[in-house]
Design brief:
SDR_fam, Sc_DH/Rdtase_CS, NAD(P)-bd_dom_sf
């Protein structure tokens, strides 16, 4: 798929992965719209990146997503790429009695439900285009659980399964909408977690944000089904042979490293 003169929506586009892709898309000659929950952060992102358009939207809120879809259909009817990136990660101890049920499911609401809401709301608009694309950002941690963030991996694995089902429905309907899953390893610049900020683990699994953008763009240009970046390739391959051993070893290593920081 050519990535020029496109109209692209990037959710969670005020920082991290979303911001980096939004900037690159804009540099490539596309109309780029970013979303975020905070008007202040949207305003700052637009100020720092002249030409990028900002719209406030909470992907975890179905009504907010419906309003976003209406605004896009009205003002940007040529929207042909949706980059589902908005996500949060919460590290917590399941034995901690102070953890609320609302906190437990907040990642599900943003990461998984948000991806589903945005995709469903914008499918009719995408289906009107001659060619369109949906990019769903999952993670290395869709392949193996991260023990100190029990819900996060579940959401990313859910997006992986949703992406596969979405792709098959699109094929069955005969629509020219590509679905690509982007699976980054840990990206230190995103500040999603501080568990991996130093030591051997960081050297093994971290991946520069600029490099992720490069491989992601290449995958989009080639209409790839899935882009496994960096250490994600290794982990995805390894989990085919010794999933229980790797999950246990990885899980204990994560928990020990997290405890050292506390």
């Amino acid at each position: 798929m050519k990535l020029k003169n496109r109209t692209i929506l990037v959710t969670g586009g005020t920082s991290g992965i979303g911001s980096a892709f939004a900037k690159r898309f804009h540099e490539m000659g596309n109309t780029v719209i970013i979303t975020g929950r905070s008007q202040k952060r949207i305003d700052q992102a637009v100020k720092n990146n002249p030409g990028i358009i900002g719209m406030v939207a909470d992907v975890s809120d179905a009504k907010s997503v419906e309003q976003l879809a209406k605004e896009l259909a009205k003002h940007y009817p040529k929207l042909d790429i949706v980059f589902n990136n908005a996500g949060i990660i919460n590290e917590f101890d399941l034995f901690d009695e102070s953890i609320t049920y609302e906190y437990l499911i907040s990642e599900i609401n943003t990461n998984l439900n948000g991806t589903i809401y945005v995709t469903k709301a914008l499918l009719p608009l995408l289906a009107k285009q001659r060619e369109a694309m949906i990019v769903n950002v999952t993670s290395l941690l869709a392949n193996i659980t991260v023990a100190n963030a029990p819900t996060y991996s579940a959401t990313k694995a859910g997006i992986h399964m949703f992406s596969d089902a979405l792709r098959e429905q699109i094929r069955y309907k005969g629509k020219n909408i590509h679905v690509m899953e982007l699976c980054p390893p840990v990206i230190s610049e995103t500040n999603l977690t501080d568990t991996y900020d130093e030591g051997l683990m960081n050297k093994l699994i971290s991946f520069p944000l600029t490099k992720l953008v490069n491989v992601g763009i290449k995958g989009m240009l080639r209409n790839k089904l899935r882009v496994n970046a960096g250490f994600t390739k290794v982990m995805r391959f390894s989990m085919k042979f010794a999933p229980d051993f790797i999950t246990h070893t990885w899980g204990q290593m994560i928990l020990k490293q997290g405890n050292k920081k506390n």
